[in-house]
Amino acid sequence: MSLHVVAGAGGTGSRTALELAEAGERVRLVSRRGLGPEHPRIELAVGDTTDADRMSELATGAVSLINTTWPAYDRWPAEFPPIGAALLTAAERTGAGYVSLSNTYGYGRVDGAFTEDLPMAPIAVKGAVRAKMWLDALTAHQAGRARVAEVRAAAFLGRDAATSVYNMFVVPKLLAGEPVSYPGDLDVAKSWSYVGDVARTLAAVARSEVGWGRAWHVPSHRISVRELTVELAAAAAMPAPEFVPMTRTELAWAGSENSVIAEMIEMYYAFEHPDVLDATATERAFGLAATPLDAIIAETVTLVAAA
Fold first, then answer.
1. d(CA 216, CA 205)
2. For residue 192, with 0-12 CB atoms within 10 Å meaning exposed, 13-18 middle and 19 or more buried, which class applies?
3. How far apart are CA 302 and CA 295, in angstroms?
4. Are strands 191-194 and 221-222 parallel, antiparallel or unpaired?
């Protein structure tokens, strides 16, 4: 029974801890307040992910250190680099394999599907932050200082994706019977990653001997915002949704009163351009597949309606 340390007790971190614990592993789940799910194989620990000494102490003896910590969207440039640096240092000191959760921002704008062999070519500040964190980790791996891997997800979907753009803009309005708005092109191809599938991918890579030195994509669903919303409405027994376009200007006006929404403006290209994740390599290497979309939608409807 190996020990895995999971940094961050939010929706993804808690699900990853449970995934590992249910597989028979010991887990140390770290957060500033020591929160997390109750499970006989999960130890809840207090720690600051920017504190390399504390994280080294907590990761001593662990086979993996999994980073699911994400700062608030409007604080990425200031708060993400110290987290990445501290956790990478802890991995180097202890020998724990370092697995970091990321997204597709580092790829920039790509014609065609995102594949893991694409170079980092960000065109936005947040993409540059994520790209540098990965390149720093990869440099440590190539120098033999640490074993590293990165798991990249598309737009989040599901019960634990409370801060996802879709859950912020669409789901509450739809379930209230109101018109829904979403930035960009409602009919462009998009990939969506279920939080449970993100957790399964993180756990699979952390337990693997073949996952190091590269990125892995989360098995995800490909469906447009319009199609997804129509299916969500049907599952909720709601009338067909009424869509109201949200232009870049309208998003900017909304951002004038909300610092998180303001940070979406530089990412507008991802809302109007195809944003498709190819997870073939992950599916073949680890035998994973995306959770059926119907199940994800049913879970979203039930839990959001009860909130």
1. 8
2. buried
3. 11
4. antiparallel
- Say how far apart CA 126 and CA 253 lie, in whole Å: 20
Q: Pull the structure tokens for residue 46.
A: 């207090």
Which residues are CB-contacts of 257 (< 8 A; sequence separation ≥ 6)? Answer: none
Pairwise CA distance, residues 266 & 252, whole Å: 10
Q: What is the Cα–Cα distance from 167 to 145, expressed in whole angstroms?
A: 39
Task: Decide: pTM greater than 0.85.
Answer: yes
Under 8 Å between Cβ of 39 and 62 = no
**Can you say how many angstroms the Cα of residue 128 is from the centroid of all Cα atoms in its chain?**
16
Which backbone phi and psi does 140 adopt, to 5 degrees? -60, -40
d(CA 154, CA 297): 16
SS (H, E, C) 134-199: HHHHHHHHHCCCCCEEEEECCEEECCCCCCCHHHHHCHHHHHCCCCEEEECCCCCCEEEEEHHHHH
**Residue 31, C-beta contacts closer than 8 angstroms, at least 6 positions apart:** 7, 8, 9, 13, 44, 45, 46, 47
Q: Quote the CA–CA distance of 192 and 263 in Å, as a whole number.
A: 20
User: Is 17 in a helix, a strand, or coil?
Assistant: helix
Q: Which two tokens stand for residue 92?
A: 């180097």
Q: Which of 135, 144, 152, 148 is nearest to 216 (CA)?
A: 152
Per-residue pLDDT of the chain (307 residues; tens, 9 = 90+): 799 999 999 999 999 999 999 999 999 999 999 999 999 999 999 999 999 999 999 999 999 999 999 999 999 999 999 999 999 999 999 999 999 999 999 999 999 999 999 999 999 999 999 999 999 999 999 999 999 999 999 999 987 887 789 988 898 888 889 999 999 999 999 999 999 999 999 999 999 999 999 999 999 999 999 999 999 999 999 899 999 889 999 999 999 999 999 999 999 999 999 999 999 999 999 999 999 999 999 988 876 555 5
